[in-house]
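Reproducibility note. Readers wishing to regenerate the assembly model reported in the main text can use the exact inputs given here. Chain order matters: entities are listed in the order in which they were concatenated for prediction.
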Amino acid sequence: MKNVYENEMKLEFLSKSSNESFARITVAAFASQLDPSLEEIADIKTAVSEAVTNCIIHGYEEKEGIIKIKCKLFANSIEIEISDNGKGIEDIEKARQVLYTSKSELERSGMGFTIMESFMDEVKVESVLGVGTKVTMKKMIKVTDGIEEMKVRL
Amino acid sequence: MKVEYEKKDKLLILKITEEIDHHSCEKIKKRADYEIEIHIPKKVVFDFSNVNFMDSSGIGMIIGRYKLVKMFGGKMELINVKPSIKKILEMSGILKLISIEETGGSEFEKCI
Ligand SMILES: Nc1ncnc2c1ncn2[C@@H]1O[C@H](COP(=O)(O)OP(=O)(O)O)[C@@H](O)[C@H]1O
Ligand SMILES: [Mg+2]
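Running the prediction on these inputs yields the following structure tokens for the assembly.
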């Protein structure tokens, strides 16, 4: 089936922790065009918060840098790309393991990637040491009955 | 954060009034540690009734406070936790150490 609906937005902001809520709320507001359930919105907010926080704490290690978010909407899914030009990840497989954290001194729990993976349908991590990290996440949004009916009529 | 201390029962109630993320956690940790250290409570209750969002930063924050409370021989409990937040707590495994009480136990009700 051809995509009934497509849309895209880009966001760029400084790696300040005060932007964490700005980022997740903005992505959630954009995603709301797909009419997601409250649970789906909560999942998206949490996953975005995890990825953005990682850019700030691990990518830039609290120094100033730029975080980019690219967000695409399809008929029944959303794709969110979150990237930094920070220090990069040496061993992605190890980083994605449950409870692994390189910053336990900061009381990090090592649950970030695990939460992203369980709240989203797909999580891809690309990283180059000294160049940066890009996390791409996809989530299917269940189409509610009303909209499904509308599409049939269209 | 709203703080209440019940001297008789050595019960410290910390009501978090904001979303819990890496940004807000710094402030929450400082205040909670301060209150725990001056009161040395027997029990610390984190009231989540006004918390609509928490990410994994909150897990680290809770574990950190739990360690401190336990060091002083106290217990910890979470109350009024919303389903979306419960999902994250369950995933982290910390509910094996810290219990969630459904809408304020009788002991808590007496204190407010
Ligand atoms: N954007 C990033 N840049 C560099 N390293 C990262 C980035 N995101 C994650 N990491 C690495 O992956 C590890 C695991 O991340 P995560 O699961 O979110 O746990 P936590 O943030 O609690 O450490 C981090 O400790 C860090 O070493
Ligand atoms: Mg993280």
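We highlight two features of this model. The pocket of adenosine-5'-diphosphate (ligand 1) is lined by residues A 50, 54-55, 58-59, 84, 86-89, 95, 100-103, 108-110, 112-113, 133; B 56 (CB under 6 Å). Chain A has one domain: 7-153.
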